[in-house]
Amino acid sequence: MNTEENNINNNQINNQIKKKKSGGIINFVPYIFILAIIVVVGMLAFPKLFFGDDTGTPTNNEEKPADNPQPTPQPQPAPEPPKSKFKIYDTTSNKRPYAISINNTPVAVKVQEGLNKAYIVYEIPTEGNTSRLMAVFKDVSDVTVGTVRSCRHNFMDYAHENDAILVCFGWSHYAQDELNKGGTDFMNGNEGKWASAFWRSNPEKLAHEHTAYTSLPKLIDYTTKNKYRLTSDDSLLLNYSAEEITLDGRSDAKPANTVKLPYGNITTTFKYDAKTKMYTKTVNGSTNKDHKTKEVITTKNIIITKVPYNVMPDNYYWNLKNTGSGKGYYITNGKYVPITWKKDSRNAKSKYYYSDGTEIQVNDGRTYIQVHVTSKNVSIS
User: Fold this and answer.
1) pTM across the whole model
2) What is the rounded average pLDDT for all residues in the chain?
3) In this structure, which CATH number among 3.50.90.10, 3.30.1950.10, 3.40.430.10, 3.40.50.1240 belongs to the domain 98-380?
4) Overall average pLDDT of the 27-46 stretch
């Protein structure tokens, strides 16, 4: 073979190789195109995977920085409930008081309970030169009171002036007539409707009439059952002072270390204790103590109101003439001053005034209101 033929053959071989290469590339073009489409779609669907987060939000492999970190809120203490201005009663409460008729027969004085939990205690003259107590309770609970005795019609006057529910165990026929007319919320343990609010206890083996007791929880329960009003918008009877009242600055003040009030078969005496600034109570010469707690009965204030009386038409029960005005005494911290009392009607509040006409203020503490007939003398020394 000559040289020219060899050149022709070589050219033919090279052309065939070029065609094979060109044909191979062309055969892969569709696959490359498809792959490119997949990549583009992936970048559009999942840009964070390819480019990261343009908004600054970290990918799963990055730690997320805190956005304006705030301090962890600390628990706040609960606000304190409003506090009472006085100790003797709760100035933040509008609970209605209970006025309970308590046995004061000489033989039954030793079984009295609950008097030191009352904020006002009345001693009220009754027929036969005797007396009963009427203790007024407000804002106290879980207190046993006794022994409970029958009420008289004048007891309603003192219950009304405190907007209190009257509690008794029996009644005079005059009290019964008035109470059954309505207008006074009451509970009588001698009636079946309220009998379960009372019970009998006789630790000193006394006669049956000296054995009835009740408690504030039972009275509150029966108040609800009888749909009596539980709250009161009425102002309190007495004008209390947050600052100590001494009476020292009054020209008409005199010493009151011993106060003696005869009622007939009972003589009530109060003796001042300068250390405690309280008066301790004795009855017929014996220290008056709570039968359950053995506490000596005490008071901070004493108000004496002198009232006339007449005997009712049955010629037995007394009627106290406790409306209008009269004379009396206010006693606290070892001193006493003369006062004037005024009561416009049986349901009205009693008001007490110094000799200059200003209303008296009483100290933060229990007050005994001694209703005392004008025919008997009071001794203060």
Assistant:
1) 0.79
2) 86
3) 3.50.90.10
4) 60
